[in-house]
Specification:
The protein has 117 residues and is an all-alpha fold. It contains five helices and no strands.
Length: 117
């Protein structure tokens, strides 16, 4: 079990990070903490997808006289770069909305916001 876990260390860390983020989303009442939990979950998915593209002993897929297979898969890295841009945009939007909620309601605690309805 430990040897299998160690062999898939990058996947195990991604799952652990996802669970930590899920805990923050479920257990925390503060909207910023909930959103940071979402960001942790998002980052763990990015790490998992990048780990899927790794080829042991592979080299960068750059053609040239010294290029020899196997090559690492460049598609996951390209997808994750796009995902990071989207993540930064959604983070900025969400933090802006949280500031707006705080100005409007005076709190960012989810349980207090439910009572205001």
């Amino acid at each position: 079990m430990i040897a299998t876990l160690w062999a898939n260390f990058d996947y195990a860390v991604s799952v652990l990070l996802f669970l930590i983020g899920l805990y923050c989303v479920i257990a925390k009442n503060n909207l910023i903490k909930k959103f940071m939990g979402l960001n942790i979950m998002e980052t763990s998915v990015f790490a998992f997808i990048v780990a899927l593209g790794v080829v042991r002993g592979g080299s960068a897929p750059i053609m040239g006289p010294d290029a020899r297979p196997p090559f690492v898969n460049p598609i996951p890295q390209a997808l994750i770069l796009t995902g990071i841009v989207v993540a930064v945009s959604t983070t900025a939007l969400a933090l802006g909305l949280i500031v707006r909620v705080w100005r409007q309601c005076g709190t960012i605690e989810a349980n207090e916001l439910r009572e205001l309805e």
